[in-house]
Design brief:
CATH architecture of the largest domain: 3-Layer(aba) Sandwich
CATH class of the largest domain: Alpha Beta
Order of helices and strands: EHEHEHEHEHHEHHEEEHEH
Number of domains: 2
Bound molecules: 1,4-dihydronicotinamide adenine dinucleotide
CATH superfamily of the largest domain: NAD(P)-binding Rossmann-like Domain
Structural class: alpha/beta
Radius of gyration: 21 Å
Distance between the termini: 60 Å
Helix content: 40-55%
Number of strands: 10
Amino acid sequence: MGLRLDEQVAVVTGAGRGLGRAHALLLASLGAKVVVNDLGGKVDGSGSGQAMADVVVEEIADAGGTAVSNYDGVDSMAGGQNIVKTAVDHFGRIDILVNNAGILIDRSFSKMAEGDWDKVLDVHLKGSFCVTRAAFPLMKENGYGRIILTASAAGLFGNFGQANYAAAKSAMLGLMNVIKIEGSKYNIKINTIAPMAASRMTENLLPAEVLEQIKPEFVSPLVAYLCSEACGETGGIYTAAGGHFGRISIMEGKGFTFHRSTITIDDIQEKFEVINQMDDAKYHSSLLDHAGSLFDQISKKEAE
Ligand code: NAI
């Protein structure tokens, strides 16, 4: 028998449609008991409706699985607490949290208003904080947890018209990097996915034949694996789309250390090509790891 998630309790936010629905259906089919969170509403975050989450709960039940709905918004502490409480009230614990809920308010940067910025940051960034903040102490108590954050290539690499969304999505990395460290001694693993999938977010951007190739169901197996006990990885960023999976990483180039008492703008210009290059780039697992190698470089100065 392959990997299973029997006896595990999972919360999937924004699971009423799209990627979240696919994650919830797969986790439930693997034996997890699932809280299907979704406040309904439009792609820009306006409106609400309970039907979306209920339909997914029914789909899970029809397939022989166990699930319960929750309709709170992720973007408040009260919402986060209540989403996690739903898991505890119905299933007694929380093992898995998939932060997936999201909205889009795209505008070119010179037209982006404060409200467009706040709303998007609230759902993606504050929302991931609020729900994870509610789940984390319970996971610590249990000595076990698996957390997923959902980033986007728009944040990691850039995309026109998405400054709010890209800023929120790349902020997942900072959040992950700290939770990775604070959760490590409690067997809490956290990873970030950067998916691409056919959903209402992408249906008007991509041609039908491409959308057919990137069904949300192709992303969920990675989420399920990262949420399994078998997965020991933490702090990873993974691309997932249309059956392709891979690692994305922030790396530091070798750089150049000036061993002299003053450094000028011209010194930088002269060495900029070397400073800028990424050959032999290194991954750092923490600030301390980064600082250690930085101080190694600097202290060579004294040795010379
Ligand atoms: P979607 O619009 O189909 O699903 C998002 C769900 O989140 C909706 O059901 C919505 O009602 C729910 N939601 C919105 N605000 C909420 C809130 N405050 N509280 C609770 N639920 C809320 O979008 P899709 O494509 O399935 O996106 C899922 C996640 O994946 C999002 O975080 C999105 O930014 C991210 N993503 C999607 C990509 C894609 O190609 N579809 C690409 C990169 C990232």
